[in-house]
Structure formats: structure tokens, C-alpha cells
Design brief:
Two copies of one chain form a homodimer. With 426 residues, chain A is α/β, with parallel strands linked by helices. Chain A is 44% helix and 16% strand. In chain A, the strands form three sheets. The first copy, chain A, has a seven-stranded mixed β-sheet with strand order 5-4-7-6-8-9-10, with helices on both faces. In chain A, α2 links the parallel β2 and β3.
Amino acid sequence: MTEIPNPVDLAVVTVPANKVLSLIPEFDQKKIKNVLLISSGFGEVGEEGKILEKELVKKARNAGILIIGPNTMGICNPYISFYCVGSHVRPPSGGTVLLAQSGNLGTQILAFAAKEDIGIRAFCGSGNEAMITIEDYMEGFEVDDKTKTVVLYVESVKNGRRFFESAKRVGQHKPVIVLKGGRTEAGSSAAASHTGAMASDIKVFMAACRQAGIVQAESPMDLLDLSAAFSSLPLPKGNKVALLTLGGGWGVVASDLCEENGLIVPKLSEEVISKINKLLPPFWSHANPIDIVGEMNPETYMKILEELIQWPECDAIIHMGIIGRKIMIKAIMESTAIVDKKYDSKFVENALRYAEGFEKQTIEQTVKLMEKYNKPIIGVYLLNDDETRTVTEVNGGKYKGVNFITPEKAVKSLAKMYQYSQWLKV
Amino acid sequence: MTEIPNPVDLAVVTVPANKVLSLIPEFDQKKIKNVLLISSGFGEVGEEGKILEKELVKKARNAGILIIGPNTMGICNPYISFYCVGSHVRPPSGGTVLLAQSGNLGTQILAFAAKEDIGIRAFCGSGNEAMITIEDYMEGFEVDDKTKTVVLYVESVKNGRRFFESAKRVGQHKPVIVLKGGRTEAGSSAAASHTGAMASDIKVFMAACRQAGIVQAESPMDLLDLSAAFSSLPLPKGNKVALLTLGGGWGVVASDLCEENGLIVPKLSEEVISKINKLLPPFWSHANPIDIVGEMNPETYMKILEELIQWPECDAIIHMGIIGRKIMIKAIMESTAIVDKKYDSKFVENALRYAEGFEKQTIEQTVKLMEKYNKPIIGVYLLNDDETRTVTEVNGGKYKGVNFITPEKAVKSLAKMYQYSQWLKV
């Protein structure tokens, strides 16, 4: 180690467990104060490993060395292009910090985040938490300005009081989103076998989460949806949602989902109806969901969105099919070109470029509306292709475009945002 | 019309509503007995439209003409390469029939089905159901041998007794999966405005669904997941699930989801443990979920799967991360090739070809195991790329490979299959 010429900020250790202890004097000599300990074979393998882990922590502490892990899948910080993670993905930098008490689950969530352009502040697989525990990380997230949203996969917490107290403090400034592994007997028994963690009292944990304003995810994908929504959109002040559709059953389905998730689909006021009457032909729905049927003019959508967002009874908007329509247009153009030679590849290209330009512009204007009126607007694609992304950054502004593939993701995320905004008021 | 030389099986009509009636004598003259009436402007636009629709039905009936629609997004039948649908997609042929009382929703679901390789028997947007109603279609599905799974988006049913009685009969032979639009007050009020359908009594509808053995979907994407599972896998005889993971929190998360969805994660018997002991190094979990940690040998997975599927306490298997690992391998290979010139593009290609071959083989062997033991095995990718598909057809066998992106989709689908198998026993 001493042959390395310059100072070393961080040692990444992957040697077998029984050789780790002997590295401490070398770290000391080289003045290495931070260690990422990937190696497994410590507390998670039984009594012997636990003893080894304790001894390691003691020696490291005496030498003033901080250890992440052992048994971790690594860490990353996209802000400084530092990636030391088992999963080789490069998420964009952003406001979501992701900490997982399971490296596999954490790195795979990180891969999904990268795919959806969800900006990451940092990732950490906390491993066995021999020295630095989830409670410590929480206190770090509290003071880190770049962290806007805290996302955790938690199997067990050593010091519940400290964890929930800091979660409550952090929650005042930034949402804390938690997927608890081991919510059920089957799950907590699996967790005990996995990390050696004791099955904590689940009901108590859940109640403490609610009190601390923790946003609870029900599945790994929820973590991503909630990250996207919380880190990109203003919080809704109430639970009243305006739904905008291009026709059909999507408005019905979204209304059902809203009511089932504690959101309200308010009736349109006469004033709003008469405003929209001026924008749409007479056969629009005249009700919420606002079904604009065959309307094709992109500017009309934007005008309706602005009428709705100004309406005092509207706390949030979910629009469906406006973004994502280019996929449908592409399919129609391509099959038209097959049967009608007038529609050559140039025609298809132009139509697509127009559709893409329109979608980009819609997202930009949506973000502007959110900045002006401070209410969330969420899009739903209803179709997806390889270019579909949940989050779209727009000119580095305060908010971002969020478009989910399905209405269920939009509604569930909005409902959790509403719950969190209610907790903040208490 | 008479200038068309040959007989016409089906007339596809898109002329304005007020010109449709005058076509009937022409159809009669040309001996056209089937009409797909795309045109809108009938019952859904109000009283006047309703009168026009009634008159049309009367005249058509007198002329012995069948009408699908009006106000429909079309029909398709991949078996004869017949596509007459608003959404230009070409799903593969298969056993799932999809009928939607919303053209938009239906065709977009059809697009998702095509993307996931879910085989389609036929699609129909039933439109206003002026003449052929959902009750009629149900009786068709009952006698059609190619229909293996019936998937419906339903907003309203005119003759509830007839619908539920036929659903019950159909359900004895093939599952009937329903997403009900208008489960809530908000949803049914939106449905009333959309199709002009009366809000039916929701609780009664839901209770009747349960009695008739109808599998109830909660969101549009559920319809796809359930289509994939029901049309590709044997039904589980009980609710006990063996979970196989490559390590980490996925086993914990899947255990939670199982218990929350009425499935059981049984403890491994001593016999099974000693059998797996012979296959894996000593640090495997020795419990269900079966966490095989770092094991990389593809043949080992298959041997473990076969041990598990023979275990009497196992009604179904969900494995996670075995299929989909090639995406991880690709990422690792690509980043390794950047830093180490020994790993050139040829090396990466070979490794990928190996991983792909292994995944293909695993799916094939999984299907063989299902055929031999008649128990469902579902995979979970945990990662996805542009090639990820839910359904994989294997040599035209009875069953197909099903791999979902997330454990929640696998667990929820399996739980619904279990419920249906319980209903069949009553």
C-alpha cells in the first residue's frame, strides 16, 4: 500500500474476510481513513463471523478509520463520477439518495433508476452496518444540501428511537421514502436468515413510520415511482385531481384509482366548463375527467391545462395519452406508408419529428405551469417504446417533467405526495 | 358497392352517422351480412343519436345484417392476419381474447400485449354494443376452441343475469378476467358520461363476479400480467410457493408480497434441505426463500428447480434474477472492456452469447418441468432492456415461459391463479 505515491481518500477492500484485519496497520501507516469493505464472510455467516466483525470495528475505531460494510455491494456518487457498485450503471446526478440494506435489491433498483433518468445524489449498499449504520446515514442526509429525497430499503434498525427521530427531522425538509423488507411473518423470517437481523415488531415499526411522516412503499418499483414524483414535482396542497384524457375508458379507470387511493375527482364548476367550451368543439365530456375526444391541436391541450391549474378546486392534474402519442403516430405512419406510396419515409420522418417536438414542448410548458402555479402535473404515456423515460429534465429548472407508463403509477404516487403534504401540515 | 366483383365478408364503415342508414339496402343487394361500424355519432352523443341507433339496428336486423359497434375502435384476428384496429400493432396469435368496452383503452392494452409477446386470439372494441353485446360475445368465447383465456374491460352490462351465467359456464373451461371500469362513485360517474351507460350497483357487480369465478383485475396492466400467466402456465393446486433468489433482499420482498396476497412461503423439509446441500456450497440459506448466493452454474439452478417442484409442499415456484442476468453481465462486460484491453468486443460478444443461450435453455427446461410436474414456475427479471418480454413461446408446447420484470407482478398473478383454481374446486 505504501508504494502508492499520493494520498488515498478511500480504500476499496475485496480480500477474504480473514485477511481484512491485518490491513488496518497498513491503512494507518498510509493515513487512509475511509474503507469500503466489499468482502463478505463476517456477521452474516454466523457466530465466528460476528466475532471477527466486532474485532475489526474495534481496531478500525482505534485507528480512526470509518468502514462502510462489510458485505456491501458498494457506493456511487454521480456528482463526481465515482462509481464503485456491483451493478455497472451510470444514473444521472440528481436529488435522490438511495440507501439499501440489501446490495442486490439496491443495485438493481439503481439500474432501473438509471433507465428512467431518475437523478441520483448517491447510492449506498450499507451491508452489515458493522460501524456506520442507517441511523448515521440519516443524519448525513439531513445536512447534505444536494439530498432532496431520501429513499431507503430497510430490513432492520438497531436504534429505533434514533432512526425515527432523525427521520422525523429529515422529513420536515425532504421526504423519506421507505420500503420495509419484513412487513410480514414470512418476510421477516426471510430477513432474519438474510442479514441476521432480528425480526422487529412490524406493527410498531409501521406505526412509528406513520408518526414520523415516512412515505411507505409497498414494492421495489414503488420506490422508483415515488422517487420520480417527489424529486421532480411540487407537493399537492389538497387531494382534488383534474383528469384529462384523449377519450375512452382511461378517464374511468383513473377515476376509480383516484377514489380507491383517497383522491377526489371534483365536479367541474360552471365557470371552468364555459372556459373549456371556448377551447373545444361541443362534444367534449363537459365533466371531470375532461375527455377532449378527437382534439388534435397541441396548443389546445396547453390552454386547457392552464385553465384547470388555475381552478381553485384543482390541486393536481393527471393527463393521459398526450405524451406518448408519438408512438401511436409512428405505428400509424409506418403502416400507412406500406399501403400508400404517397407516404414515403420522408413523410413518416417529418410527422415523427413534429410529434417529438410537440411532446418535448408540452413537457417544457408543463414544467413552466408547475413553476408558475406550484401544483403538480403528471403525465401518463399509455404506450411505451425504448425511448420512454419517467423523468425529463427541462433547462435545469426547479421541477421536472414526470410521465408514467400507466395511470396506476401516477395516481398512487400523487396519493402518497398528498399524504406527505398532510403530515407536513400537522 | 355493387362494383366490387367478388363477395364481401365484412363491410368496414366509417362514413358519418347520418349516412349509415342509407347503406343498408346496398349491403342487402351485395349480400353483405357483417358490418364493422367504426363511425361515431350514435347513442353516445345523446337522445337524437339513440333514436338513430335504434332505427339502424331495426333495419339491419330486418335485413339479417350483424353490426359490431357503432363507435368501435375495430377488431383483429392475428390467426388470419386480419387487423382492422385504430392502434397499428401486430400481436402474435395465441389464446387470449380481448374485448373492451373502450376502444382507446382496449387498443392500447393490445399494443402492450404485442410488446410483451402475449398471444392474441382476437381483439374487439365493442363500441356502443347497439346490436352485438358483451353477453353475445361471451357465448361466442364459450364455443371457440382457440380462445383459452377471456380478458374483458367492462363498464356496463345490459343483461346481468345472462352475462354472469355465461361467465360462470365459460369459467369452468377457461378463465374470465375482468377489469371493471366504474368500481367507485367517481369511476361510474365518469363511465356514465363516457358511454352513456347507467351506473350499475357496484357492490352487487363485484359480488356476482366472485360467485361466477371471474378473476378481477385492479388496473389495466393487471389485465396483461394475468393474460400472460393464465394463458401460459398450469394452475397451482395450492398456495404454497418456493422462492429462489440469487441473494439479497429480493427473497424478503417476495416473501412479504406472498403473505400479503394470500400465498404461503412454507419452511423447507429436512429432506429438501439435504438434497439441496448436495447441490450448493454450505453458505446457501437453508431456508425458503432459497438464496443460492453466488452460485453461477446454470445447471445447478435447474437441478434445484427440479428438486423443489417435486417437493409435495411446493405448489408453485417463483425464481428471481436467473433470467435477466444477461443484462447485468452485459453491463459488467462493457465496463470491463473499457478499462482492460484484454476484454475486447469479441470477448464481450461471446460472453453475451453464452448468457443468452443459457437463458433460452433455462426457459425451455422450465417449460419442460411444468409439463412434467404440472406446477407453475414463474421467473422475475429484476432488470430489463429492449429485448425483455413477458412471454416466451417454446416449441409450440402446452405451456410457455413467463418472466415478469418485478416480483410484485409474479406474486399477484400467482395469487389470482390460486383463487381461480380454488373456485374451480367448489
